[in-house]
Backbone:
């Protein structure tokens, strides 16, 4: 082809650069890494303000988390008490021991009774001496003042069934009083259920407070970096590019607050552990105060980080659009 031909002298057109999918994913991954590093560096650059924000989040989350741990301990301690529901049936004083045992055998055959237990007057007196500390006083009495007792364990612990059995036993001529001994346990379970719901309401309220704290923190961060954001938008930075560092900042604040809340709850449980264990020993309980479960330790920081991410997203969605280049 001749060098001076028109085709040879035709200038080459501009070629569009094509970016492969692998390069895009690599750039996306690098920007996420840089955004996380930037968020951590900015927290380290302002340690006092960052610590105050993290501490507020930690206190807000430690309160319901600590109450939930104490409630779980109370639930474990009282677990199975309903299965020991029983009636203490006090007999007339003139009922002898043989008659007491025959009555216990007869009542054990009731279709609503699981089993019975005989406590004679002598056994009741010995037990009372051991537990009350008034052994010397009781020794001075001319006669045993305690009545014979039969403990009746119902087959069905439903309130209606137990009350029907109590009425049936009270109607017998040898019975002085049939007393239900687990009413207070049921009240305790009702209180625990109420506490569980109160903790749920408290958690929702304080979670909303955490979100608002992060919203305010990220809003201030956006205002302080207004000029930087304007420059990024002028050179073609997308909203997602600008938004990403703030989202990581919100997550880091929330995650750090969740970790610190674990420390606060653990410290509080350690401080309360001694008195609570001593109290349980006084009641001859085999249980002791337990800390947070491994699942809670894992979930709480992630839950807090999610709240921080949500707060950052709300703040960025609301305020980032107000930062635009002015031409």
Residues:
């Amino acid at each position: 082809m001749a060098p001076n031909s028109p085709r040879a002298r035709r200038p080459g057109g501009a070629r569009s650069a094509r970016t492969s999918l692998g390069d895009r994913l690599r750039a996306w991954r690098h920007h996420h890494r840089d955004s996380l590093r930037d968020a951590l560096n900015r927290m380290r650059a302002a340690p006092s303000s960052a610590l105050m924000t993290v501490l507020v989040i930690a206190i807000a989350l430690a309160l319901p988390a600590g109450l939930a741990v104490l409630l779980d301990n109370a639930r474990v301690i009282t677990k199975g008490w309903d299965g020991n529901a029983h009636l203490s049936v006090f007999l007339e004083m003139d009922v002898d021991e043989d008659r007491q045992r025959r009555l216990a055998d007869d009542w054990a055959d009731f279709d609503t009774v699981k089993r019975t237990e005989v406590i004679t007057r002598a056994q009741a007196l010995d037990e009372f001496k051991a537990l009350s500390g008034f052994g010397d006083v009781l020794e001075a009495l001319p006669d045993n003042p305690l009545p014979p007792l039969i403990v009746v364990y119902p087959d069905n612990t439903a309130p209606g069934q137990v009350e029907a059995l109590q009425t049936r036993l009270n109607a017998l001529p040898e019975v002085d009083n049939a007393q239900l001994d687990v009413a207070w346990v049921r009240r305790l379970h009702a209180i625990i259920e109420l506490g569980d719901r109160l903790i749920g309401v408290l958690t929702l309220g304080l979670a909303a407070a955490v979100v608002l704290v992060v919203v305010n923190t990220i809003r201030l961060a956006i205002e302080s970096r207004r000029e930087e954001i304007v420059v990024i938008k002028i050179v073609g930075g997308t909203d997602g590019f600008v938004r990403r560092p703030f989202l990581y900042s919100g997550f880091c604040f929330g995650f750090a607050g969740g970790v610190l809340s674990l420390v606060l709850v653990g410290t509080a449980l350690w401080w309360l552990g001694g008195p609570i264990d001593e109290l349980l020993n006084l009641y001859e309980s085999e249980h002791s105060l337990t800390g947070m479960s491994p699942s809670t330790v894992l979930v709480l920081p992630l839950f807090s980080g999610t709240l921080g991410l949500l707060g950052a997203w709300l703040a960025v969605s609301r305020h980032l659009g107000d930062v635009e280049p002015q031409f």
In short: The chain has ten helices and four strands. The two ends are 52 Å apart (CA to CA).
